[in-house]
Amino acid sequence: MNNMNNLNDMVMRSRARMEEVNARVAHLQHCMSELTEKMRVAEEQKRKLSLDLNDTMCKLAYSREELCRVECELKRLQEMQSHDQDQSHLS
User: Fold this and answer.
1) Cα separation of 24 and 20, whole Å?
2) In angstroms, how far is CA 37 from the centroid of its own chain?
């Protein structure tokens, strides 16, 4: 009879331990689901930021081209003005 009680105790402890393990597994699965969702959101944000950065870089490149055009035009006008002033001094 004593062996039977010991065996029953072992079975009860094993079942309790299995319930603990199952609860921990369920908790870890829940945590993994949350982390997976957070990673998905982070990847989406990264993708959007990458697109925004690319758009900003394109706008910056265009602005630099515009600045170069304006500087060239300004230089051309200054040279014309200087040339006109030289001509007016000669006359």
Assistant:
1) 6
2) 15
Q: Determine whether 54 is exposed, middle or buried from the number of CB atoms within 10 Å of its CB (0-12, 13-18, 19+).
A: exposed
| CA nearest to 32, candidates 19, 20, 40 | 40
Q: What is the pLDDT along the chain (91 residues), one digit of tens a residue?
A: 788 899 999 999 999 999 999 999 999 999 999 999 999 999 999 999 999 999 999 999 999 999 999 999 999 999 999 988 878 776 6
pTM exceeding the 0.85 threshold for the entire prediction: no
Sign for the CA dihedral angle at 27, 32, 38, 44 comes to: negative
